[in-house]
Design a protein that fits this description.
Layout (H helix, E strand, L loop, with lengths): L1 H35 L6 H19 L10 H22 L7 H21 L14 E3 H4 L8 E3 H23 L1 H11 L1 H6 L4 H23 L9 H16 L4 H21 L5 H15 L3 H12 L1
Antiparallel strand pairs: 1-2
Helix pairs in contact: 1-6, 1-7, 1-9, 1-10, 1-11, 2-3, 2-4, 2-9, 2-10, 3-4, 3-9, 6-7, 6-9, 7-9, 10-11, 10-12, 11-12, 11-13
Family: Belongs to the binding-protein-dependent transport system permease family. LivHM subfamily.
Protein name: Inner-membrane translocator
GO molecular function: transmembrane transporter activity
């Protein structure tokens, strides 16, 4: 009995740790979707670029991947703003010609980034062999009297805590700064924001940069844990898209809950069905959300508020 409970709790904790990082990826895509009304299908490739930045900072200069959070996200913020201003904006101006041309553009940008990375760095798998990569501790070390022994990987735990801190800082920025409030106003009603004097064009540029910086943060948190290769971005673009659908289009809180749900679901699938079935579980929950919860978790939250 205790063994089964221990396996379940270990799987649950692993899923929550994974879900916290997934949530950070999903928030970036959701933020861009909410403000610009487009699905950024180059999201994972931007994360891949950030991971290569963190990798080379570690390889060439010995900078810890977590310290690279101070370097890679600002660079990707500037890169995201450049992409939005130079490529996405001109396409948005001719949206009437082809309503979904901006989505096609993001796919093309992702393919270019992936192929450039392949040319420059080859398709070899790379990693950052940090000293603490295999370090783990037990929950009983922190909470005496715990009846089951649940181990926590130090990199996973640190990455999760940092993702929480980044999410809280994002909430503070959106809720308590003039720029953050302008971004939220643009997301809620672009025309009303224009009437109130908000520079909607600038907010779109900043939002794309902010979404790129958020996924860059996720890349820096993943690099001590995951192997890195150019095609990695496609996998995380799909994950971000699933989280966005599961959480609800444009809902930041929904993206957080969607990331946690997906992380736990994948962890449970890997433990009780098999490691190879985790991606299948991802598609199962995606299809289930489309069929039974088309509005995502956000629709349940809205329904609950209206019922009170």
């Amino acid at each position: 009995m205790w063994v089964q409970a221990e396996v379940f709790l270990q799987t649950l904790v692993a899923g929550i740790l994974l879900g916290g990082l997934y949530a950070l990826i999903g928030i970036g895509m959701t933020l861009i979707l909410g403000v610009m009304k487009i699905i950024n299908l180059t999201h994972g490739q931007l994360m891949m670029v950030a991971m290569y930045i963190a990798f080379w900072l570690f390889t060439l200069f010995g900078i810890d991947p977590y310290v690279s959070l101070l370097i890679a996200p600002p660079l990707m913020f500037a890169f995201g703003m450049l992409i939005q201003k130079a490529l996405v904006n001109p396409v948005l101006r001719v949206e009437s010609i082809l309503p979904h041309n901006q989505v096609i553009l993001t796919v093309g940008i992702g393919l270019v980034l992936q192929n450039v990375a392949t040319i420059l760095f080859t398709s070899d798998y790379r990693s950052t062999p940090v000293d603490y990569a295999s370090t783990a501790f037990y929950l009983s070390d922190l909470w005496a009297g715990t009846p089951v022994e649940i181990s926590l990987s130090l990199p996973w735990a640190v990455s999760f805590l940092l993702s929480v801190v980044i999410t809280v800082l994002l909430w503070f920025f959106l809720a308590h700064t003039d720029t953050g409030k302008s971004i939220r106003a643009t997301a809620q009603d672009k025309d009303a924001a224009l009437i109130m004097g908000v520079n909607v064009g600038l907010m779109r540029v900043i939002t794309f940069g902010l979404g790129s910086a958020l996924v860059a943060c996720a890349g820096c948190l993943f690099i001590p844990i995951y192997y890195l290769f150019p095609a990695l971005g496609s996998q995380f673009t799909l994950i971000a898209f699933v989280i966005t659908i599961l959480g609800g289009l444009g809902s930041t809180l929904g993206a957080i809950l969607g990331g946690l749900i997906l992380g736990v679901f994948e962890s449970m699938t890997a433990t009780y069905v098999g490691m190879g079935w985790a991606p299948v579980g991802r598609f199962v929950i995606f299809v289930a959300a489309l069929v039974f919860l088309p509005g995502g978790v956000a629709s349940l939250l809205k329904t609950r508020k209206l019922s009170k």
